[in-house]
Amino acid sequence: MKLHKFLFLLTVILVSLMTAVVWFFPLNDDFRTSNPFWNGTKDIESGYAFTPLESLSDLPVSPHDTVLVIIPYLQFSATDLAAVSSFITGGGTVIVADDYGYGNQITEFLGLRARFSGQPLLDPIVNYKNQWFPRILHLKPSSLTTGIDELVFNHATALSEIEAGDILAQSSIFSFLDTDDDRTQSADETAGLLPVISRHSLGKGKIFLISDPSLFINSMAPIGDNDRLVQNIAAAGSTVLFDQSHLPPSNLSEAKDVLTQLHNFFTTPPGTLGLVLAVITVTLMPIWHRRR
Predict the structure, then answer these.
(1) Separation between Cα atoms, residue 100 and residue 230, nearest integer Å
(2) Structural domain tally of the chain?
(3) Which of 71, 142, 207, 239 is 20 to 30 A from 56 (CA-CA)?
(4) 3-class secondary-structure state, position 144
(5) Is 248 inside a domain boundary?
(6) Whole-model pTM over 0.90
(7) pLDDT tens figures, 132-184
């Protein structure tokens, strides 16, 4: 009986400790505004008042003077795509930052020829650390590129099917798309000045395409003039919404969601009553066992 009580107490302690760790440990999901680590976007959320958006169904009806930033690492539903389209044509500004995700779902739905190539953009000469970090020096004056001399990308891709008048930034003449993934340039691989940022008008609004979402993470924002790009986005509207609904959740994120749902349930009258009854039952169990 003593062993039984000890094991029960030990289980309660371990479950409590694990619950506390999950509840209080910060999220480490890529691009999450609640993630303070190198791969999160906590800095731009706190420094530039980027507002996290948990669902595209919550987009404002009157989107004028509102900017929506999307990093599309999960597929879009037809409802989401329609919401993005209505947001732009109604006067909103959308920035799609993608490399190997689902950004082409958006451009295709909107009827744009522009595409994210989805192939690694390497630059063996004009780079920051190595060829995976190309420096972007060819920039056209615009509201997005004001005050920027160079951007530094991180494991990026390039844009394709972009008209010359829509290009805002290009990689260097030494860059290429590594289509065969051998890290060296082949004769049949696209090379030279490759578009990496573009601007397109739709209805009353506009959409910008950026071929690297890593510009927004905490570790990349201070490099080059990446931080100035974030400033320009923040200045483009009175409200900047940062979509979180198309970022894949980690196990920690899912566990936090479960705890949040339990917390919300136990704060309701039925939940509180059930919790009180459970505590009373656990407390009286030793007495009940002794009487038996």
Answers:
(1) 21
(2) 1
(3) 142
(4) coil
(5) no
(6) no
(7) 999 999 999 999 999 999 999 999 999 999 999 999 999 999 999 999 999 99
Amino acid letter for position 5: K
Question: In this structure, which amino acid lies at residue 187?
Answer: A
Asked if 123 and 174 touch (Cβ cutoff 8 Å), the reply is yes
Length of the chain: 292
Per the domain annotation, does 239 fall within a domain? yes
CB 192 within 8 A of CB 175: yes
At 104, which CATH number?
3.40.50
Going from the C-alpha of 212 to that of each of 103, 118, 133, the distances in angstroms are: 11, 10, 11
Tell me how far CA of residue 37 lies from CA of 30, 121, 155, 170, 219, in angstroms.
9, 25, 18, 29, 8
146: CB partners within 8 A, 6+ apart? 228, 232
Residues 6+ apart with CB under 8 A from 199: 142, 144, 166, 168, 206, 207, 208
pLDDT digits (tens, 9 = 90+) for 273-291: 665 666 566 566 656 666 6
Q: What are phi and psi of 138, to 5 degrees?
A: -90, 100
Which parts of the chain sit beneath pLDDT 70? Answer: 1-27, 251-266, 270-292
In angstroms, rounded to a whole number, what is the distance separating the alpha carbons of residues 156 and 149? 19
In 3-state terms, what secondary structure has residue 30? coil
Q: How far apart are the first and last CA of the chain?
A: 12
15 lies in a domain? no
The answer to whether position 265 is within a domain reads no
Q: Which domain holds residue 60?
A: 42-243
- One-character DSSP codes across 101-162: SSHHHHHHHTT---EE--S-EE-SSSBSSSTTSBEE-EE--STTTTT-S-EE-SS---EES-
CA distance 207 to 142: 13
